[in-house]
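User: Reviewer 2 asked us to show a designed sequence for the structure in our supplementary figure. I'm pasting the structure tokens here. Could you produce the per-position amino acids so we can include them in the response letter?
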């Protein structure tokens, strides 16, 4: 008779627990976010993911910062949210700002559990609406959110202006340039003396 593989005693998804984020988790969460929100994949997410915002979130909205942790204490996911209380409105909003699951742990319900827990916390605190957002091209996340009950999609457009071509920017640069000490006339370098070649100082190439 063919051997029936033993069923694990604990279902696989039970081995990941969702808990509130702690101070020690911040560097790990930041690193995981750096791996997930990369410039080549989601430029708009990459631009705004930074450690200062993460620390600020933790300080001001700690109860809405969740992590998913496995048996080996590895952080395999996180959800960071904030409660938006409008003074003249009966509607408080829960905003899921960041959600990430370590790629090796994807498709195991970690994201769903993080969102479920955060939703419950928002409801407990009186939120009547929950908002999520992501890059318009982040199809996997959009499918995930739609599958988790989110809809009524509307688009938000980012517009950019290169400020290095702005007259005020140019003026500031010119002023800074004028304040720099004028380099002394170079004396001829004897061939036996060391020379530093190829060091460019004060280039003003605009960022790409
Ligand atoms: C989006 C993300 C959080 C999903 O996390 P996850 O743990 O893989 O998702 P889950 O396993 O909980 O999936 C829950 C449901 O969504 C579906 N789903 C998840 N990823 C999906 C995908 N790429 N395509 C289609 N459906 C998907 C699953 O099939 C599952 O449905 P089911 O419960 O009916 O089977 C994760 O892929 C991620 O971290 N992506 C990169 C970061 C990101 O884009 N974050 C969101 C914007 S801030």
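Assistant: Here is a per-position design you can include in the supplement:
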């Amino acid at each position: 008779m063919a051997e029936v593989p033993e069923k694990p005693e604990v279902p696989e998804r039970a081995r990941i627990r969702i808990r509130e984020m702690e101070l020690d988790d911040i560097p790990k969460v930041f690193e995981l976010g750096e791996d997930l929100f990369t410039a080549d994949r989601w430029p708009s997410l990459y631009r705004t993911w930074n450690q200062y915002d993460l620390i600020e979130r933790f300080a001001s909205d700690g109860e809405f910062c969740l992590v998913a942790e496995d048996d080996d204490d590895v952080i395999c996911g996180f959800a960071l949210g904030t409660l938006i209380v409008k003074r003249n409105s009966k509607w408080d909003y829960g905003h899921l700002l960041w959600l990430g699951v370590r790629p090796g742990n994807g498709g195991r319900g970690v994201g769903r559990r993080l969102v479920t827990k955060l939703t419950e916390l928002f409801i407990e605190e009186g939120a009547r609406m929950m908002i999520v957002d992501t890059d318009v091209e982040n199809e996997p996340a959009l499918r995930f959110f739609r599958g988790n009950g989110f809809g009524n999609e509307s688009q938000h457009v980012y517009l950019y202006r290169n400020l290095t071509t702005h007259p005020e920017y140019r003026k500031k640069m010119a002023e800074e340039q004028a304040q720099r000490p004028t380099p002394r006339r170079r004396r001829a370098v004897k061939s036996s003396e060391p020379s530093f070649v190829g060091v460019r100082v004060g280039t003003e190439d605009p960022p790409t």
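For the response letter, you might also mention the following. Strands lie at 17-20, 65-69, 75-85, 92-101, 129-132. Residues 110-124 form the longest helix (15 residues).
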